[in-house]
Amino acid sequence: MPARNQILVFAKLPRAGRVKTRLVGTLSAQEAAALHLACLRDTLRMVETFGGAEPRLLLAADSRNAQRFARRLGLGQNWQVRTQGRGTLGARLARAFRSGFLDGAERIIAVGSDSPWMGARRLRAAFRALTDADVVLGPAADGGYYLVGASRFLPELFEEIPWGSGHVLAATLRALRGCGASWRLLPRDFDLDRPADLRRAERWLRIRPKCCPALREWFAERRGARTALR
What we know:
Elements (H helix, E strand, L loop, with lengths): L4 E8 L16 H22 L3 E7 L2 H11 L6 E4 L5 H14 L4 E5 L7 H11 L5 E5 L5 E6 L17 H11 L4 E3 L9 H13 L5 H16 L2
Parallel strand pairs: 1-2, 1-4, 2-3, 5-7
Antiparallel strand pairs: 4-6, 5-6
């Protein structure tokens, strides 16, 4: 019987001034919120394209707003929509992984919406890595990770990690060594989080024009708006 896989997409609601805040200044708060929504739509599309796992969208919102936003996204019936609950990112991740394993999952992967170009192939590689490792991580250029997965519940994976810093990956690896867990690393990638990342993502979309249609549309609309102001 094939392993029961889950993919957890962690996301915030696209509210101006609450998302992509490191880009505000380069972008308006409204542009940053629209960018966040585009990245989320492409991430959800990527998970749908993969199709090899039960998808769950975990939103940083109360239940009413989470369900309302899910309807706006037009998610299929195969999606479960839940709230992240309170606490640090580590506490929310730990709660979601614990819940998934208690529900019968054998391998769980969690992603955000900041690297929507990673693709279904990367997700397949992550699940393959979990056939003989406890943990899989996707290192990010900023010192964090864009993907984390596990084949068993390891609370140490999420405890005493300096979330939001450039030391998340290093601290996570120390924690894994400390508890004797095995891990695999995916190819290094970047998050769309800072002004330099915008330029990098735009270059990437020129090379892969079929990748991330919502993000490509966001860039096209931004170029159009800037041209109209000249």
